[in-house]
Write a structure and sequence with these properties.
40% strand, Lipocalin, 2 domains, ten-stranded antiparallel sheet
């Protein structure tokens, strides 16, 4: 390779490297600039049910898992409640635990309407602070199995309902979401207890 060709090749390489560097810096800068957005504001401005496609990574009953799901926000679904009126409702859905048990499959929402039930039962306590919404299940209603998870696969898998713990989600101006969930679930009938702990990341799709 001649000196001229080597010089041109080096120039092309450096130009490409500069593009990659600038692109990476721009992406990182955009992520750094993203600010928390009130979930109440998101709901008020939305024309459709705000939905985020998420990746859920954690452990259920001691078994590691990584799976996809959705987080949805909605305006208050019911004002007839024994645990206070929710400012908004929030739901985490991944699979259908009671129908198709899988490790980490979960329904964890503040209202039964999350899953298409006609009866809009308020399932717990919702708090909003800045860009974060948190949901704590009402243990008095947990045994309805409206909210549940499984920590193994197959028809013989136990189905656990949440007894203690909570989930929280923070929403950002660039359409991303970050959250975490941690609770203990009970199944009875020889199944005993199962813990569910996971981190949640994703991006808005609607």
């Amino acid at each position: 390779m001649s000196a001229l060709m080597r010089k041109r090749a080096i120039s092309v390489f450096l130009a490409a490297l500069a593009v990659v560097t600038v692109s990476g810096t721009t992406t990182a800068h955009a992520a750094a600039k993203a600010k928390p957005v009130s979930p109440i504001t998101i709901v008020k401005k939305a024309k459709k049910v705000p939905t985020w496609k998420v990746t859920i990574t954690g452990r259920a009953g001691g078994h590691a898992f990584k799976r996809t799901g959705v987080v949805r926000l909605a305006s208050t679904r019911t004002r007839v409640t024994t645990n206070g009126i929710n400012k908004i409702d929030v739901c985490l859905i991944s699979g259908t635990p009671s129908v198709r048990p899988q490790t980490g499959a979960i329904h964890f929402g503040s209202n039964a309407a999350c899953y298409g039930y006609r009866t809009r039962v308020d399932m717990g306590y919702v708090k909003v602070s800045g860009g974060t919404v948190s949901f704590t299940p009402d243990s008095r209603l947990s045994a309805t199995f409206v909210n549940n998870h499984t920590d193994s696969n197959g028809l013989l898998a136990c189905i656990y309902y949440p007894v203690s713990g909570k989930g929280s989600y923070t929403f950002y101006s660039n359409g991303t979401i970050r959250g975490k969930i941690s609770y203990r679930g009970f199944a009875g009938l020889g199944c005993d207890w199962s813990s569910y702990s996971a981190t949640i990341t994703g991006r808005r799709i609607q």
